[in-house]
Specification:
Elements: H1 8-37, H2 40-63, H3 66-72, H4 84-98, H5 104-120, H6 123-127, H7 129-137
Helix pairs in contact: 1-2, 4-5
Keywords: Membrane, Transmembrane, Transmembrane helix
Transmembrane segments: 15-37, 43-64
Length: 138
């Protein structure tokens, strides 16, 4: 199966993630230079890059899916081939299945829904292999 091109929003996420990596390396270098030179301007640059790093990190992890991007950087992973809505639905179903208060009828319904999602999106099997084995074996 040919891998689909990324959407515009996915490309924007990846560009912001690359910007985050650049800001992080700038922060590390400016901290080393500030420690070596003890200059006020170097310390200000380190503090400024730390503030920018913190803002980009908070925004990225909250809204731009940085956790998945950091796992798949730089080559990509199986999760990249699955649409976001399907990925979040599978994650929610697996979490609900493993929740302590879930009764057996709901667990059977979750299994049926996961099997239906596997038929719709076969990439789910490779991306969520361990989770699906745990759900279908229990």
């Amino acid at each position: 199966m040919v891998r689909q091109l990324n959407s515009a929003s996915e490309m924007a996420r990846r560009l912001v993630f690359l910007f985050y990596i650049v800001v992080f390396t700038t922060y590390l270098f400016s901290c080393v230079i500030a420690l070596a030179l003890h200059g006020v301007s170097e310390i200000c640059v380190a503090c400024g890059s730390f503030i920018l790093l913190s803002v980009v990190r908070i925004v990225g992890y909250r809204w731009l899916d940085f956790e998945r991007l950091s796992d798949s950087f730089p080559g990509g992973c199986a999760l990249d081939c699955i649409p976001r809505n399907v990925r979040t639905e599978v994650e929610a179903l697996v979490d609900e299945f493993h929740a302590p208060g879930t009764d057996w009828t709901r667990r059977v319904a979750i299994r049926h829904r996961l099997v239906a999602l596997e038929e719709e999106e076969p990439e789910i099997i490779k991306a969520f292999e361990d989770d699906l084995k745990a759900v279908l074996a229990a």
